[in-house]
Please model this.
Amino acid sequence: MIDKTKSHYEVIVIGAGVAGIYQIKLLADLGVDATVLDAAGDLGGTWYWNRYPGARFDSESYTYGFSFSRELLNEWHWKERFSSQPENLRYLNYVADKFDLRKYMQFNCKVDAMRFDEANDRWRLNIADGRELTCRFVIMAVGLLSIPTPPRFKGMDKFKGRSFHTFYWPHEPVAMAGQKVAVIGTGATGIQVIGEIADKVGDLTVFQRRPNWSAPLNNGPISVAEMADIRSRYDEIFATCSRTPGGFEHEPDRRGFYEVSREERQALWDRLYETPGFAIWLRNFREIFTDEKANAEFSEYIADRIRRRVKNPAVAEKLIPRDHGFGVQRVPMETHYFEAFNRDNVNLVDITETPIVEVTETGLRTTKRAYDFDIIVYATGFDAITGAFRSHRHPGHRRRKVTGLVERWSIDLSRHAGAWVPEFFHALGTAERLRLDELSAWHRDRRQLVHQVTSVHERAWLHPRRTYAGGRTTLGRPC
Ligand SMILES: Cc1cc2nc3c(=O)[nH]c(=O)nc-3n(C[C@H](O)[C@H](O)[C@H](O)COP(=O)(O)OP(=O)(O)OC[C@H]3O[C@@H](n4cnc5c(N)ncnc54)[C@H](O)[C@@H]3O)c2cc1C
Model:
C-alpha cells in the first residue's frame, strides 16, 4: 500500500504504461526510493485506456513483451500473433504482480505542473489531487499516444445518444447490436474499429476525411507448440528486432527493386500481402521508401488489391489514398476493413465533399443532409509524441539555462529527442538506453550524473526522429 503522506522520493516516474513499468522495475532492483504516478485509474497506459473493439497490436505479440526476465518469457503464452487490448492489459498486470511493482504505483495522480526548485536542487510536482511531491530525478514515461484529440464540432455536447473518443471507450461493454453507429475517422484506430463492429451493429456510417493505405494484419492463434518454438527462438527474435529500424521482426528484401523483373516484384508482393503483420511494409524493397517510381508501382499494386476487395468501384476509389504513397506514413493494419464496405448496413461519407457542419441532439448534419445515430465514435487520433509533454506546465530549469519544454519543442521536434534537461529523463526511444545507463551510473556514484547534450547530439537525433513512424508529424496536430 502506497503511503500518500510521503512527499519526497529520489525518483518519480510519470506514467505506468509499458515504459513506466520497466523503469520502476529497474529502479526497484537498484534499491532506489521511487514511485510511479499515473493519471489513469490503473496501470497499463495505452492498454488501460484504449478499450475500443478491435484494439490490438500490429507488432507480433511475442516481440512486444518484456525481454528482461527469462522466467517471464517462459511463463507467458501469447495466444494470438497480434494480441488484443484485454490480453495485453492482462499481461502488463501479470508482470506488475509477478515482480511486486504495484506497491510503487499511485493512480488517479495526474501531474499538472512541475518546476525545478533551484535552491533545494529538486523537482516539485503538483498533482491533481492537491499534493505536492518532490524528487531529485523525474523520468517521463508519459507515452507518445496518450493524449487523444477529440474533434471540435459545433454542438457535440447536445447529442442525446452515447458518444466517445476511442481512447475513452467505456470499461463496461457497449451494447451495439441493432444500433445506428457513426465512426468519424479512418486512421489506424478507425480502421480497427470499423473492421470489428461492421457486422455487429445495426447501421454503420463511416465519415472519412482522408483515406489511409492499409493492408491485412493476417492475425491468427498461436498454439502451444508454436509458442514453445517461439520461446526457443527468443534470443534470435530479439536480435532481429534490435537490428531493424522500427524494432519489428521484419527486415527488408535486400534485392534491388530494378534488379528483379516486374513479375518477381509482383510475386513478392503477393506473398507479403498474405504474410502477417508489417511484412508488406517492412519486408519490401528498400526503394519503396526512397524512389518515387518504385513507390508508385507498389502503391498501384495495393490500390488494385483494394479494388478487388471492394465491390462498389466508386467506394473503392474513395478508399484509395491520392495524397501519399504506400508506406511513407505509418501503415494501419486491418482485418476485414475493406470487406466492411461491401455490407448493406455500412455507408461511407466523404467529408471533403460534404463536411460535417454540427453534431445535433439526434446525430449529426453534413452540408448535404442530417443523420440520426444512437452512438457516435470519435476515432480522431492523438496529439502524437509531444502531446503528453505539453499537457502539463513545465517552466524549465533556469540555472542550467534550460528554457521551458513547451517553448523549446515549439521550435522543432529535435529537442524532444534529446535527454538534455538535467535530472529529467524521458523514456521515448533512441536515447532510452543512454539514460538508463546514466541513471545506474549515478546510483553507483551519486556525483556522476554529468550530462552534456550538445546541439550536435540534437541534430543527430533529429534525423531519424523527424517523422512519426515515417510520416511527418506537426506539433499539436492529430496523427
Ligand atoms: C491502439 C494502439 C495500438 C498500438 N499498437 C502498438 C504495437 O503494436 N506496437 C508498438 O510498438 N506500439 C504500439 N502502440 C504504441 C503504444 O503507445 C506503445 O507501444 C506503448 O504502449 C507506449 O508505452 P508508454 O509506457 O511509453 O506510454 P503509454 O502506454 O501511453 O503510457 C503513458 C501513461 O502516462 C500517463 N500520463 C501521461 N501524462 C501524464 C501526466 N501529466 N500525469 C500523470 N500521468 C500521465 C498516461 O495516463 C498513460 O497511462 C499502440 C498504440 C495504440 C494507441
